[in-house]
Amino acid sequence: xxxxxxxxxxxxxxxxxxxxxxxxxxxxxxxxxxxxxxxxxxxxxxxxxxxxxxxxxxxxxxxxxxxxxxxxxxxxxxxxxxxxxxxxxxxxxxxxxxxxxxxxxxxxxxxxxxxxxxxxxxxxxxxxxxxxxxxxxxxxxxxxxxxxxxxxxxxxxxxxxxxxxxxxxxxxxxxxxxxxxxxxxxxxxxxxxxxxxxxxxxxxxxxxxxxxxxxxxxxxxxxxxxxxxxxxxxxxxxxxxxxxxxxxxxxxxxxxxxxxxxxxxxxxxxxxxxxxxxxxxxxxxxxxxxxxxxxxxxxxxxxxxxxxxxxxxxxxxxxxxxxxxxxxxxxxxxxxxxxxxx
Length: 342
Fold this sequence. Notes:
Blueprint (H helix, E strand, L loop, with lengths): L2 H12 L4 H17 L4 E7 L13 E7 L5 H17 L4 E7 H4 L5 H6 L1 E5 L11 H18 L7 E2 L18 E3 L5 E3 L2 H19 L6 H11 L3 H16 L8 H33 L4 H13 L2 E2 L1 H13 L3 H18 L1
Parallel strand pairs: 2-3, 5-8
Antiparallel strand pairs: 1-2, 1-4, 6-7
Helix pairs in contact: 2-3, 6-7, 6-10, 6-11, 7-8, 7-9, 7-10, 8-9, 9-10, 10-12, 11-13, 12-13
């Protein structure tokens, strides 16, 4: 069987019944083969289309792995091609560009354990899984960024958290839109689902030492390993918001009331997560792993938290490090100082 036939079979098997998704994948591969001939090692689908949980409103996640260590020009071309594919696609696309050199330092579990190759060479057995320390760091900081930035919260966060938009029916958690098959965009719970799912994954990594690569495992592992009231919220978000309502806002009054109740419970989940995150953040800022320290300070620049202990940790960091970590700390402190002046 030729490589074109293998590619066609792989795409068809992943997107059966979803012509727009199949067309989008074929267009991505064709665009990169034309625009960067011989530069791509492999094309992989990750997320819901890879683990057979896709629904009609799911976006299509694609990881494109460039050969060796891609130079700046190749990376820039790849990003332009990706932007063009996203713009032209009838199906919502999310394309991640990486290269073999980056993956050799450790790949995420969703790539190594639950992705699907659609074209090119399969290198998943050749690349190591990211360390649990780095995985936890990525999930914890990314989840904090989602709490701070996905919804209409202030540029500088102070605790305790409040609802993003208390006067709205769904309290500001349904601002993200999705594109329907007819091209219309409507409000959705996509970011709410991502917030809960990522935070649950982060807590499983931090508190239980567990990698999660398949969204079907999140609610089961969270229920088994962590439990409590938050486990019921994680379950409801996946079974109702994602599966029953397909990210959309339901029209039935009883179901709208159920969604409102989920949104009301979300603030308690966020506050619980942030309490854990704050202790993790302080430990990272005071730690000896300077890459971890730098990353924590960078996150605070992108999603600032006004907290006395955090500010004290940043100030201490500027005194003990004259390198990249100290520079990020100074930027974060300057941002916090400017906001106080305003």
